[in-house]
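Field log, afternoon session.

UNIT: design team B
ACTIVITY: writing a sequence onto a fixed backbone
BACKBONE:
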């Protein structure tokens, strides 16, 4: 169980860091982790996938909001 706790802490830290590239790297690393059970590996990978998706949605929403703020009368200032 110590390895699972280490992996969980690493996933927590990577999610808190909020950098998609780092989340993707860890996602790939977990694919090759033979010390975890299939279920534990899936759970941790799913947490990363969810964080990546949420960050992507958040970035799109921010971009749209910026565009709306910069657009006045149909043109970008």
């Amino acid at each position: 169980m110590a390895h699972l706790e280490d992996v969980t802490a690493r996933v927590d830290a990577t999610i808190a860091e909020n950098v998609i590239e780092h989340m993707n790297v860890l996602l790939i690393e977990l694919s090759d982790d033979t010390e975890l059970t299939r279920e534990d590996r899936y759970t941790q990978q799913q947490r990363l996938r969810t964080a990546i998706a949420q960050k992507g949605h958040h970035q799109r929403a921010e971009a749209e909001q910026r565009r709306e703020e910069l657009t006045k009368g149909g043109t970008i200032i």
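LOG NOTE: The beta strands are 71-72, 75-76.
NEXT ACTIVITY: expression trials, pending approval
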